[in-house]
Amino acid sequence: MPDSVIHFRAVARHFDDVIAVGGVDLSVAAGCFVALVGASGSGKSTLMKMVNGLEQPTTGQVIFAGEDVSTQPPAKLRRRIGYVFQSIGLFPHMNVAENIGIGPRLSGQRLGDGRIRALLELVELEADMTSRMPDELSGGQRQRVGVARALANEPELLLMDEPFGALDPITRDALGERVRALHDALGLTSIMVTHDMAEALLLADRVLVMDAGLIVADETPAALLAGKGGEIAQGLVAVPRAQAEKLAAMEREGSRS
Ligand SMILES: Nc1ncnc2c1ncn2[C@@H]1O[C@H](COP(=O)(O)OP(=O)(O)OP(=O)(O)O)[C@@H](O)[C@H]1O
């Protein structure tokens, strides 16, 4: 498929006798926003890390932009793939501008002040944030800087692993919508790991559900809401649906009293 940015071909990753990823075949089309959901330990992070070379498949191949990831130099992958991983935070000894510019700097390029201001603007942060240190920012601001850093190299692919996990619900909602708007405006291809099925349904074009190292559902949000995707996917959809129903019932009760 020429318009696919990434292909997984029978990709498995074992850690001794633990099968983290058990044989995944998957293609992601250019321009698609994919959410990857599933229980803790189902293999989501391991699958993502095999895209940018942080983990290597035990068997199978990950193909990015037509080439096997294992044959591409790490620096080239870093330039073409932006990532926001909760486990890989900002560098604490670098200010905001230095954090945003680290990717280009590693490839021998210096980001100008104008470009840094433009990146801050993309994630709706004030231009005077540039000299702040990470510990002088709120969690939401740090995640915004993380997104700006991931976009600094104008990546073709954006990988996000629980990017908004530690944020309060209002900030999380706002940042999710901002990232989706950026995805559309910049013509990105994005894959986002989340534990939150509601977030996946609201933001993604395509929702993948992982269970025990395998992708057990691959549906659009509309198809999932219409009951497709099988038992595990429907178990995850049931949670936000039940919450929405309870809230609607409370609202009805409230309007009667
Ligand atoms: N470096 C490692 N060494 C050994 N086992 C690992 C390693 N990385 C992951 N695993 C195991 O592989 C399985 C899948 O882990 P992974 O982190 O991919 O799951 P996940 O779906 O991302 O979980 P979570 O939602 O909790 O982040 C787990 O059983 C985990 O313990």
From TrEMBL:
MF GO annotations = ATP binding; ATP hydrolysis activity
Q: Which UniProt keywords apply?
A: ATP-binding, Nucleotide-binding, Transport
Q: Return the InterPro entries for the record.
A: AAA+_ATPase, ABC_SmlMolc_Importer, ABC_transporter-like_ATP-bd, ABC_transporter-like_CS, P-loop_NTPase
Q: Which SUPFAM superfamilies match?
A: P-loop containing nucleoside triphosphate hydrolases
Show the Pfam families listed in the entry. ABC_tran
Would you indicate the residue range of the signal peptide?
A: none
Q: Which GO biological-process labels does this protein carry?
A: quaternary ammonium group transport
User: Would you say which domain of life the source belongs to?
Assistant: Bacteria
UniProt keyword Metal-binding present:
no
Tell me which residues make up the ABC transporter domain. Answer: 6-237
Q: Which PANTHER family match?
A: SPERMIDINE/PUTRESCINE IMPORT ATP-BINDING PROTEIN POTA (PTHR42781), SPERMIDINE_PUTRESCINE IMPORT ATP-BINDING PROTEIN POTA (PTHR42781:SF4)
Q: What's the name of the protein?
A: ATP-binding cassette domain-containing protein
Species for this entry? Altererythrobacter rubellus
